[in-house]
Write a structure and sequence with these properties.
Belongs to the 4-hydroxybenzoyl-CoA thioesterase family. With 162 residues, this protein is α+β, with helices and mostly antiparallel strands. It has three helices and six strands, in the order E-H-E-E-E-E-E-H-H.
């Protein structure tokens, strides 16, 4: 779903942060290279977790990336010193949640959209575990209304196990 400006986020709260770019993020063609978009999105998800969980007095949940879809829409050029990243939770399941992140250059132009499915994991066993109630509440605080309403009970094999 996209609006006239290419916005892929839905109605509801959004977490926003700015991630500084590094010299090594640029390739020989003078724009941020493809792998750096993924690193910037990952760094923004870490800031999201720190600000939304840790700063509210909760432990940061262990969440592993299960899948990622990336749409590269335009190049971020060297005149951008920090990338604006908007993160929204668009789906909350039983053991996983999905975020959509929009990466924008210094002019506010949408450069990349990253959709990421993350699985909450028990670090002792390495296996998926249900999202706890407090985690669900925190995720819902920056989610679309539809994601916040989901109970996760209708998920089908989201954790990759039978």
């Amino acid at each position: 779903m996209t609006d006239a400006q290419g916005n892929r986020l839905l109605s509801g709260p959004v977490h926003t942060t700015k991630i500084p770019v590094r010299w090594g993020d640029f390739d020989r063609f003078g724009h941020i290279n493809n792998a750096s978009y993924i690193e910037i999105a990952q760094e923004a998800r870490a800031v999201f977790a720190m600000e939304e969980f840790v700063e509210r007095g909760h432990a940061m949940p262990a969440a592993f990336v299960r899948s990622m879809k990336i749409d590269y829409l335009s190049a971020i050029m060297p005149d951008t010193m920090e990338v604006m990243v908007e993160t929204q939770v668009v789906r909350i399941g039983r053991t996983s949640f999905t975020t959509v992140q929009q990466l924008k250059d210094r002019h506010g132009s949408l450069a990349c959209v990253v959709e990421c499915v993350q699985i909450t994991v028990d670090l002792k066993t390495g296996k998926p575990r249900p999202i706890e109630d407090f985690e669900r509440k925190v995720l819902a605080s920056v989610s679309t209304p539809e994601a916040a309403l989901g109970s996760g009970e209708n998920e089908e094999n989201e954790d990759g196990e039978d």
